[in-house]
Design brief:
The chain is of the alpha+beta class. The N and C termini lie far apart (43 Å).
């Protein structure tokens, strides 16, 4: 089974400078891309905390193949109210 590496960057509460906290191996599947999207969506207001792909090729595939199909209003707000 193919995998790719994902880095998690975290920022201290009182500072916005992110630092690399850990690197993980994820299986190379659409479910992993959905996990990446959902985790980053949950962190969007957390002062610089985020996940990134290590590989430029995986980042390109995510941006060109997965993101346009998955980034919908329903997925972005995950059932929340949109004003």
């Amino acid at each position: 089974m193919r995998t790719f590496k994902v880095e998690y960057w975290n920022a201290a509460y009182k500072g916005a400078k992110s630092k690399l906290t850990r690197t993980e191996d994820w299986s190379d599947t659409d479910e992993s891309f959905a996990k990446f999207y959902n985790l980053n969506n949950q962190l969007k207001y957390c002062n610089g905390s985020h996940y990134t792909f290590v590989s430029d090729e995986v980042r390109r595939r995510y941006n060109e193949e997965f993101f346009p199909k998955y980034h919908t209003i329903e997925n972005y707000y995950r059932g929340g109210v949109v004003d």
